[in-house]
UniProtKB/TrEMBL annotation, chain A:
InterPro entries: PDH/Transketolase, THDP-binding, Transketo_C/PFOR_II, Transketolase-like_Pyr-bd, Transketolase_C. Gene3D superfamilies: 3.40.50.920, 3.40.50.970. It comes from the Bacteria. Keywords: Thiamine pyrophosphate. Its cofactor is thiamine diphosphate. Residues 10-175 form the Transketolase-like pyrimidine-binding domain. Belongs to the transketolase family. This is Transketolase. The keyword Magnesium does not apply.
Automatic annotation (TrEMBL), chain B:
InterPro entries: THDP-binding (IPR029061), Transketolase_N (IPR005474). The keyword rRNA processing does not apply. Belongs to the transketolase family. This is Transketolase. It holds the Pfam family Transketolase_N.
Length: 318, 281
């Protein structure tokens, strides 16, 4: 197992804030919109640097999505910022008609996704957003795993033409990917090469997969860990190549097991190479209030549960 | 000026012929609101807008128009064709398979003149505001126009946009409401009252004008007045009084023709009332 260490923990949303500032410096057409959550989205640095390119929309997310769509006409690259719940479910039809169907170059940037939002509870903990967004034709869906990757992804999507959903979160977590990395949309990242099982993880579950990999190594299990930061378009080649080698799969995501990364991989495998698969995901339920780590444990989204899922799926291998 | 009005009225009559023929040939679509807004569209595209029929999505240096109540697509398609954006013959493909003229306007099929999909109501004012903000950022001193149904004002997003535009001094925006008092299920007063629209928009901080939308002379006068009041710190709202189905006596003023196609006899009766010097497609 390749060794991953970290010296610092930060929230992925801060990676977004840093990436937005950098994207703004690189391209004068980058503009930012926010629905009364500037602090939560870490947009202050961008606003300070480019006050004339920031638009405070107020608590009106539908209006924000429409304004963003309109701003693309004339060449702006709008980044919208609010919580994941208000970035997707609340404004699904606005995104569907004015952005996705209309093919507008809007970057929907969503913080506080999933259970790790914590104490605010299930009203704010969306676990359906990846599914909602990946079903929209033409929408790119990205869920980053640490501060550095989120910063790199934010810069990369500004350079990509087309609608993007970028999902990140609230808690501080280890920074284990490289600073100044080049983020390639749709290109899976090999975290650890292995031969016994393929663990495909996204977002906050990537670090948990690394912790699980270390425990598995001690048990003599050689896990391949791949970070699927881009859920759509899925890096099919990387997934199929890995599965051809390992013959069994665990998917890990902070999302409902219905409609997320696990389902995308299951669909690919069902068509090309039917393979035993276990899901690390929320079992079709809402979340609840609590500390993020406690919630992740209760809902089965941590390293311990990944280890159990690996044992289970390896026993199913033919 | 008088000659211009006559010419515009002649075009409007032809557009009305196109509308009833388009809706008849596919036996679906929305003739009522289309006929009611015809004079506005013709005035806009043949007199008011600074625009280029060689369509370019960004429209730099051009006035932009957004249709929020997308179901009145027939009047827009006909007007665009008559203005020269594409051949009028293509109007015969309206709502048919493999057409660029979808039931509701879209950019997906790349029909020249369309900059955003609409049909799901309430979204167009936000989009128009966005385009207006970009014009300001680009130091582009042209205008953005948008059209909305009155029933559409029942959508909450409209009022989000209504609050945003004055607060942010989006004064390069001229929105219009097709104030015909009708929606699919009946008169707006019965379905869900709009109340005092003038007072509502004024309270939100808009510069409100009123216009007789089926009187070409008044349409031109008020649209020109609206232009003269742009860039003065407030977005502009025109309450456009129209009759749904205007120009065809048996369709006029009734919500029953909101989304119903005429049969062969009704088509003939409608066309007999609409005499234009232009050619049918």
């Amino acid at each position: 197992m390749k060794k991953y260490t970290f010296t610092e923990k930060k929230d992925t949303r801060s990676g977004f804030g840093a990436g937005l500032l950098e994207a703004g410096k690189r391209n004068g057409n980058v503009v930012a919109l926010c629905a009364d959550l500037v602090g939560s989205l870490k947009m202050e640095a961008f606003i300070k640097e480019f006050p004339e390119r920031f638009f405070q929309i107020g608590i009106a997310e539908a209006n924000m999505m429409g304004i963003a769509a309109g701003m693309t006409i004339g060449g702006k690259i709008p980044f919208t910022g609010t919580f994941a719940n208000f970035s997707t479910g609340r404004v699904y039809d606005q995104i569907r008609q004015s952005i996705a169907y209309s093919g507008k170059n809007v970057k929907i940037c969503a913080s506080h996704a999933g259970l790790t939002l914590g104490e605010d509870g299930a009203t704010h903990q969306i676990l359906e957003d990846i599914g909602l967004m990946k079903m929209l034709p033409g929408m790119t869906v990205i869920n980053t795993c640490d501060y550095n990757q989120t910063m790199a992804a934010t810069i990369a999507i500004a350079e990509y033409e087309g609608p993007v959903y970028l999902r990140f979160g609230r808690p501080v977590i280890p920074i284990f990917t490289a600073p100044d990395q080049k983020f390639e949309i749709g290109k899976a990242w090999m975290v650890n090469e292995g031969s016994d099982v393929s663990i495909f993880a996204t977002g906050h579950l990537v670090w948990e997969a690394i912790l699980a990999g270390e425990q598995l190594a001690e048990m003599g299990i050689d896990a391949e860990i791949i970070n699927i930061h881009t859920i759509k378009p899925l890096d099919e080649e990387a997934v199929l190549k890995s599965v051809a080698k390992t013959g069994c799969v665990v998917t890990a995501e902070e999302h409902n097991r219905l409609g997320g990364l696990g389902d995308s991989i299951a669909q690919l495998l069902a068509k090309n190479n039917p393979t035993p698969q276990e899901y690390i995901a929320v079992d079709d339920s809402f979340g609840e209030s609590g500390k993020p780590a406690d919630l992740m444990s209760k809902y089965g989204l941590d390293a311990a549960h990944i280890v159990e899922a690996v044992k289970k799926v390896m026993a199913r291998k033919k | 000026m008088k000659a211009d009005i006559e010419k515009l009225n002649d075009i409007a009559t032809q557009v009305r012929r196109d509308i009833v023929r388009m809706v008849h040939q596919c036996q679906s679509g929305h003739p009522g609101g289309s006929l009611g807004c015809t004079d506005y569209f013709v005035a806009l595209y043949f007199h008011v807008l600074k625009h280029n029929v060689n369509f370019n999505m960004d429209g730099a240096g051009e006035d932009l128009f957004f249709l929020s109540n997308g179901h009145i697509s027939p009047v827009w398609y006909s007007t665009l064709a008559r203005a020269g954006y594409f051949e009028t013959a293509e109007l015969g493909t309206f709502r048919k398979i493999n057409s660029r003229m979808q039931g509701h306007p879209t950019t997906h099929e790349h029909l020249p003149g369309i900059r955003i999909a609409s049909g799901s109501l309430g979204q167009g004012m936000s989009v128009a505001i966005g385009a207006a903000l970009t014009k300001k950022l680009n130091n582009d001193n042209s205008l953005v126009f948008s059209l909305h149904g009155d029933g559409e004002l029942q959508e909450g997003q409209i009022w989000e946009a209504a609050m945003f535009a004055p607060h942010n001094k989006v004064d390069n925006l001229i929105s219009t409401i097709d104030y015909n008092g009708q929606q699919i299920d009946g008169p707006t007063d019965k379905v869900l009252s709009l109340g005092n629209l003038r007072a509502k928009w004024e309270a939100f901080g808009w510069d409100v004008l009123e216009m007789q939308g089926n009187d070409m002379e008044d349409v031109i006068r008020v649209l020109e007045l609206a232009k003269s009041r742009a860039f003065k710190g407030k977005p502009i709202m025109i309450l456009m009084h129209t009759a749904m189905g205007y120009g065809v006596d048996f369709m006029m003023g009734s919500h029953k023709w909101h989304g119903v196609a005429p049969n062969d006899e009704q088509l003939a009766a409608a066309l007999a009332q609409l005499n234009s010097s232009l050619q049918d497609y």
